[in-house]
Amino acid sequence: MARHKAKLGGGRNIRLADQIQKDLAILIQREIDMSRAGLITLTAVELSADYAHAKVHFTVLGAEPETAVEVLNAKAGWFHSQLYKMLHIHTVPTLRFFYDDHVVRGMAMSKLIEEANRPVGSADNTVPDDPDEQP
Q1: Of 40, 89, 103, 121, which is least surrounded by CB within 10 A?
Q2: Any domain includes 30
């Protein structure tokens, strides 16, 4: 019989990923220049099983995603040192930043669905935002 039972769900991994996401959001807001990297929103943090590596997913407004990735990955070592001071854990993961294009793809899919559901021949008809103005 195995000495240690495998944990289902990985509760500590999820809690630590959430805490890293919160702390990184504060550090990014405080330290990254918005005029260069845009408005960065962290969407997810994925931790390896040994907590040695973290993939940080983000979206960006007002800048090219490639620029934001470069800026964030350039500061990853500094973020690592700050997280070490904030988290008080033995192993702070090495950070890698990845642009999350799910929001952009979701908006494109919504637009395609709207176009597909629009009746034939009414391409110029738009639905007013105010329900009182509907015909």
Answers
A1: 121
A2: yes
